[in-house]
Amino acid sequence: HPSQRVSLGDNVTLRCHLPRLASRIQLCQDQRLTSCMDKYEMQDVADFYITTKREHAGMYRCQYQVQKPLQTSEKSDPMELVVTDFSFPPPGISLSPGGHVGTGTNITIRCWNKDYGATFLLHKDGCSAALQRQHPDEGSMATFTLFQVTPTDNGTYRCSYLIKGYFPLLSSPLGDNVTLEVTPTSAHPGAAVESHRNMVVAVAGGCAVAFVFIPLLIIFFLLTTRRCQRLRDKRHGAPPRRPEAVQLQAPRSDSDCLTYVELQAEPPTTRSPAPPADPQPPTIYADVRTGGPH
Known about the structure:
Blueprint: E1 6-7, E2 11-22, E3 24-29, E4 37-39, E5 43-51, E6 58-66, E7 71-72, E8 79-81, E9 83-84, E10 92-96, E11 100-102, E12 107-112, E13 117-124, E14 132-134, E15 141-146, E16 155-163, E17 170-171, E18 178-183, H1 189-235, E19 246-248, E20 261-263
Parallel strand pairs: 1-9, 9-17, 11-18
Antiparallel strand pairs: 2-5, 3-4, 3-6, 6-7, 6-8, 10-12, 12-15, 13-14, 13-16, 16-18, 19-20
């Protein structure tokens, strides 16, 4: 603590969290530029206080020891302490393309310092840790790329560099800033027209299908209804409907002797013929005159 960048002369607290009570807790720097610090108290949290100097910049790890049985733990994951030295000049920075950019654009940020830079770090305001770091072969310029940016990448960016030499995490101050502004990409002008055209085609196609399908559906329904009615009549033994008798008669003026016949017009049927009924003699009408021969 603090978790942000610290400068030479700042008071810093380094804290070790343990999974159990320990009789001895030790904090050591990987580079061994300073002596390890120890605490001999039964506790599971230990705070170590330092006033930063150049040699305090480095990587730190915690380790603890228990008495019963006597055991020493493995070292913890490293914690990085970067110390800023304002006696070094800040790096330069550039942003390309500049100004407002659309969503999906690739952005290039360059940082440089030709005299002291070894490893360059890219920072964004509001983020405690560096976004990217780079160790260029030539050592004087680093190129950072932000791929396919979105409005969430909006913000202010700065660079710093770790100074060449004996202190690996001694840093320059932050340099000048550049501002990235990403605007959402508007839809293509023809997209709305194309979408409307597709909708019209879809509606027209649906109407055409309806005009063809609905009459077919009605015909199918009527045929099905008629067939069901016939099957129902057959199942209940209902006799087919018979047409009315048709009487044929020749005009009276055509002959003096007339014969009248009553006929029944009946369509053919597929039913089995019923047993013959008593024959009915045809009805004959005769007009007999008693006059002499013609």
